[in-house]
Structure formats: C-alpha cells, structure tokens
Amino acid sequence: MYAEHRRQFLKHLSTTGTAAVIPTNRSMVRNHDCDFRFRPSSDFWYLTGFAEPEACLVLLPDLEGDGPGRSILYLRELDKLMEIWNGRRLGLDAAPKALGVDEARNIESLWEDLPECLTGYEEVVFSTGFDADRDRKMGEVLAAVRRKARGGIRPLTSMVDHTPALHELRLFKAEAEIDMIRKACTITTEAHVAAMAATAPGMNECEIDALVEYTFKRRGSTGAAYNNIVAGGGNACILHYVENNAELRDGDLLLIDAGAEWNYYSSDVTRTFPVNGRFNDEQRAIYEIVLEAQMKAIEHSAPGVSFVSIHEVALLCLVEGLIGLGLLQGSAEEVIESRSYTDFYPHRTGHWMGLDVHDCGYYASEGSSRILEPGMIFTVEPGLYVDPANQDVEERWRGIGVRIEDDILITNDGHEVLTAAIPKSVEAVEAACGAPVPEPVA
Ligand SMILES: [Mn+2]
C-alpha cells in the first residue's frame, strides 16, 4: 500500500520534474529527559509505513526518461547499545526489502547528501515552517546546489509546498485504507458501548476515560486518534474539554468524543448519554433535535453533493428545533442570517478524516464548496450546547450539551456509516446504558 502511494506521488512529481524531501516528525520532550510517545508524521507514514523517529524520505523522479524514479529512505543505523536502551531499529540492510524503497542510507548523512541528490532538479518539495532547524539546513542545501550551477547544471531555484498534490492523494481513500479505518471504527464501537454500560452516578470522568483507553489498547490500536473528551454535565459545553476528572452526577448527561487509531488511521465518534441511564424531558428534547439533524445530514451525503450543504442541512434542522423549543426567536431564515444560533452551535458539522483526525484536503476551491466523490471519508457531528451560565434561557435547559458524531464513507451510489453499530436512538442508548458491563477481557 505504501509503495503504491509512493508510486502515485512519484508519478505526480515526474510531471513537473520535482524532487521531494519528506522528513518524519521529531521526537518531542514531555518533561526533563522523557519524550512523548513517538508518532510519525502522517505524510511520511502515508509514503513509507515506517514508524521510527529520525527518518526522511527522498523521492527523485526520472529526469531523463519516463522511468519510475527513485526512493531513498534515510534512517538510523543499527546500534546494539542504543537498541538495548531505546528499542529495536530496522536498520539500513533490512529497509529496502521490508519497505520496498530503492535504497536505504544513514540519517546522519542526509544533509550532506542532499545537494548531490537534488542536483539537476529545479524544484524540490519541502514543507517549511514546522521546524526552524530543518528549514535552515534546507536553505543551505539550496544554496549549495545553486553554487554548482556554474558548472552548467540546471539550478535548483524553488522549494514548493507539497500540500496540494500529496494531500489530494490522501483525501481519496483506497480499499486498504478504508479497511484500516473500519478496524479503528470497530474498536471505537466497542469502547463507546462499554462506556455506556459502565457509567453510573458517583463515578468520575477519569474512570470512563480509562475504560475507553483500555478498550482501544487491548484491541491493539495505535492508541487514541486524539485526546479523549469525557465530559459530564456542563463540561460538555466546553468543546475540547480534556481534563476528564469531574464526578459524574445523577441526572446529568455524559458526552464522550473518542476514537481509536488503527495503524495510524483515525476514527472519530461522539455519543451523549444519561449518566443514570434515562434522559429527562429537556435532555431528550435537545437530543432528538441533534439526532434528527445528524440523520438528515447523513442521509444527504452522496456523490455529487457539496460538502458545505451537509452543514446547511444540519444547521437548518438545529435552528428549527431551537425555535420550536423557544430557545431562539424569529424565523429559521432570520436566525441563520443573524447567526444568533452560534450561542448554541458554535462549530461546523464535519471534517475530512484519515491519517489525521482532521484530515488534509481542500474543503473549497475558487470560492465554491468541494463536491463529494467516492472514497472520501468525513464526520457528521452536529451538536447543541446550552452554557451553564446562559441567563437568557430557563434554568432547566442550562448545562445540557449534546453532540452526535459518526464517520461517513462516500460510496459509488451513496454513503456508508462506518460507525453505525454504536447505539444512537434514544431507545438504543437507554438500552445500552442498562446493559451488563462487558467482561474486561473477551
Ligand atoms: Mn470530529
């Protein structure tokens, strides 16, 4: 799969005779001498399937003929002592066969080698702005190649952003990638179902957070695709709440936004359910509006439909619901025009999903929204949030926060909900809340 991604990107590079230098992420210090758990950069992983730190992929299209071009992977040498301390390494000898790259070289010689690698190319793909040290070294490489131009070689004149081309490839998921996202969604389903069953008044958000994390990891996931949001009561109105340390109170809702990652491919799911297993009238009223908006927006998702129209379908439904409850005044048109709904719905309805949970790919071009095509995967996640401090509404509504989020694949004739097995209707959610807690080890 990764070799195929490389082949496609090299083919694109060959149309303009552009070379590419794509480093992976740097290890990041967590505190003192401890690093965060390493995660490769998504672009690098997409092209290599290689998860070690300190690595860089160099792609060199064929300048003379129409050959397939060359791929060179720079990585760490085997080092017995370092491996005893910090973990196994693939090493230079094993890399070409294991990863299908044409050549493997020592990462120590990357910057020294690059002027020669890039000689003859006029353009090189390199993403600047992420790492000042790398940007400076790349600048020196360009200067070194230009100095050679006196010898009659074509000068390397520009560094280009690879976002449009590579990210366009990443936007359309191949079968093998869809399978990985399916796997992530299956694990996520298990985690949400387990959370619904286990939650009870008096527990702490951290216990449910731990259960979700445990479910992800025991199924062999690469971890959570993003920080879990486990938000009881009014905490649900903080969109990216990650403290996850408050007591879960009888009569409150619990919003969980959590998705497993499989082989670095994401899932992204939100469910909201009653801590004590039964919605009260106000909670159910808000929940049903969000649910209807979400189902209508999903129903609308198909090839040929614009991405923004999914948001518009959901928004209209939410606004009509809020007017119906008396939480907003005026006609739906007036409310949408004045944006007075943003007190209750401050975000949009979805985003691309893939190797990054908020995946790459343009949402619009030349001012008009992207048209959906088969192979695209995105979330549909409307929500309504009544701030606990909102004095403009009756007290009974305050602190209710509901979001419902599923992952949608556009197919040739419509869509598929990849997370359809997670309870969602009021009846299904209440039943899942009353279900026996799954055995910790199945
Ligand atoms: Mn999301």
What does it look like?
This protein has 442 residues and is an alpha+beta fold. It has helices at residues 2-16, 42-48, 80-86, 95-99, 110-118, 132-147, 163-171, 175-198, 205-218, 281-300, 307-324, 332-338, 426-433, and strands at residues 18-23, 29-31, 34-35, 56-60, 70-75, 103-106, 123-125, 158-160, 223-224, 229-232, 253-257, 260-262, 265-266, 270-274, 364-365, 368-369, 377-380, 383-385, 401-403, 406-411, 414-417. It has 2 domains: 2-169, Creatinase/prolidase N-terminal domain (Creatine Amidinohydrolase, Chain A, domain 1, 3-Layer(aba) Sandwich), CATH 3.40.350.10; 172-433, Alpha-Beta Complex (Creatine Amidinohydrolase). Helix 5 (110-118) packs across helix 6, helix 8 (175-198) runs antiparallel to helix 9 (205-218) and helix 11 crosses helix 12 (332-338). The longest helix is centred in the middle third of the chain and has 24 residues, at 175-198. 41% of the residues are buried. Manganese (II) ion binds next to loops.
Features:
single chain; 442 residues; alpha+beta; Creatine Amidinohydrolase, Chain A, domain 1; Creatine Amidinohydrolase; six-stranded mixed beta sheet; three-stranded antiparallel beta sheet; 13 helices; 36% helix; globular; binds manganese (II) ion
Bound molecules: manganese (II) ion
Terminal residue distance: 31 Å
Beta content comes to: 15-25%
Number of domains: 2
